[in-house]
Amino acid sequence: MTIRMMSIAAGALAAALACAPAHGFEQKTPLPDTLTLEQTHLLDSIENALNVKECCRGTLASCLNRKTPCPLAPRLHAFVKWLVVRATAPSTIFVEADKRIESLTSTRKGVIDTAGYAIAGDSRAPILIAGYVSATCPICHFVTHELYDAVTSGALAGKARLMVKPLGNGFANRSLVAANSMGRFWDFFIALAKTKVRVSEELIYIVADSLGMSHGEFKRKISAPETDSTVKAATLEAGVNGVTLTPSYFIDRVRYGSYKDPMWLIDAAEYRYEALKKAR
User: Fold this and answer.
1) Low-confidence residues in the chain, pLDDT < 70
2) What are phi and psi of 196, to 5 degrees?
3) CA-to-CA distance for 211 and 190, rounded, in angstroms?
4) Under a CB-based contact definition with an 8 Å cutoff, are residues 195 and 207 in contact?
5) 242 contacts 126 by C-beta, under 8 angstroms
6) With helix as H, strand as E and coil as C, how does 84-134 read?
7) Of 207, 224, 184, 230, which Cα lies nearest the Cα of 136?
8) 210, 218 contact by CB (below 8 A)
9) Which residue, among 42, 61, 59, has the nearest Cα to 51 in the 3D structure?
10) What is the rounded distance in angstroms from the CA atom of residue 25 to the CA atom of residue 187?
11) What are φ and ψ of residue 193, in 5° steps?
12) Distance CA 69, CA 55 (A)
């Protein structure tokens, strides 16, 4: 690619980065230091009724009041507190708390082949976060980007590593496999995620060109039979693991079924890491 073409691609990418507003799901709800009196009463009532047999065979409140609470209790307390602040209906809080307990304590593992896929973070990190994503899915972009930052330089550095696979055989998903085969998967994925605009074939080529990837090679690989086979194999594997929607993540090969806010995915990975470290 000529210098002029690279300049055009970079300019187009800069425009894509600048023109789009942040997606609504990126407006995070922070974990507060204090609650109102009404919120405190609601939190207390829920924690006195929520049974956590996986922790101390009692209510969450009783678990927290122990001299040495089990590792699950304080994490579950923070999660329930967060839901209370979000004005979540109490009935929903109980459902979501049960989902979170299952996500953190289940031992049922999926079958995930990591061969040939780019790993973000320390390859020696003991916890694998594996995701099924779509290259056209804004939530996939946002959450996976946050996880990428966490495993490469954030809270999960040295603790967890990250890998994602495409679910679905569209052009955009084939572009992920093409970038992977060129050794540029994470460069390409993060650049695509940063655009925050609707993903199109034109945008995909603009992003690849802006990264200095060989246009001809990239185009050939998108259409290559082996790319098609790889995408189909990943989609088939997702189905075997019960996945039909993106994004879906597995932590230590256990399906994560709780809130996909990056804060809680990171918290779940840290819990799995601490449990693994304790078991050794």
Assistant:
1) 1-32
2) 55, 30
3) 11
4) yes
5) no
6) HHCCCCHHHHHHHHHHHHHHHHCCCECCCCCCCCCCECCCCCCEEEEEEEC
7) 207
8) no
9) 59
10) 23
11) -65, -35
12) 8
Q: Is the dihedral of CA 94, 103, 232, 240 positive or negative?
A: negative
Distance CA(21)–CA(196), nearest Å, equals: 8
Say what the pLDDT of residue 280 is: 80
Report in angstroms the alpha-carbon separations of 123 from 70, 73, 119, 133, 172: 30, 30, 7, 21, 27
Question: Which of 271, 261, 265 lies closest to 86 in space, CA to CA?
Answer: 261
Q: Which amino acid is at 249?
A: Y
The CA distance from 38 to 41, in Å, is 5
Tell me the CA distances in angstroms from 143 to 66, 69, 133, 253, one per residue in order: 35, 30, 10, 18
Which residues, 6+ apart, have CB-to-CB distance to 127 below 8 Å? 156, 159, 160, 161, 251, 252, 269, 272, 273, 276
Query: How far apart, in whole angstroms, are the C-alpha atoms of residue 96 and residue 195?
Result: 32
* Cβ(153)–Cβ(190) below 8 Å: no
Spatial distance between the Cα atoms of 171 and 153, rounded to a whole number of angstroms = 31
This prediction has a pTM of 0.89
Phi-psi region at 196: left, alpha or beta (left = phi > 0; alpha = psi -120 to 50): left
Please count the residues of the chain: 280
Q: What is the DSSP string of 214-265?
A: -HHHHHHHHH-HHHHHHHHHHHHHHHHTT--SSSEEEETTEEE-S---HHHH
Residue with tokens 């550095």: 157
CB 270 within 8 A of CB 150: no
Token output for 182: 């060129």
Give me the domains of the chain, ranges plus CATH numbers.
37-105 (no CATH), 109-279 (3.40.30.10)
